[in-house]
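<instruction>
Derive structure tokens from the sequence
<data>
Labelled lines for chain and fold:
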Amino acid sequence: MKKHLHKVSSETDANNEDKAGKSFHFPQGMAGFPGETRFAFLYDGHGDIICMQSLDCPEIAFLLTPWDEERLGPPPAISQERRECLQLTGDEPPFWMLVLNPFADKQWVTANLQAPVALNVEARLGMQCIRVEEDQPIRYQWMPQPRQAA
């Protein structure tokens, strides 16, 4: 899993001048932010949470974590249309990630299972895949909130 996070992350951040070559392109944006299509993935090398930050509007950022098949079962199926948009070839699966929300619940960091993110790491393409056909929670209890420092 960390191998994938390191491969996804880049040295790009909102202040870096070489944005284009290291960013991920999201042709359809993210839910609520359809105009934001260029994102950097920032990872400090520890744990399994990564920050996805808009390159054009740095205040727009998301926390993501890889899909945990052991915990959630197999990742969602992806339609041929979405595969083509991500330029996935053959049986190549996308790298699935979940958007985390540390603000929705005082006791839990929640994960949005209804709208996971599919990535083609090699092509540096991404897509948030809204799962309208399934009844998946938007606020799945992913991990307890970190304790506040005294």
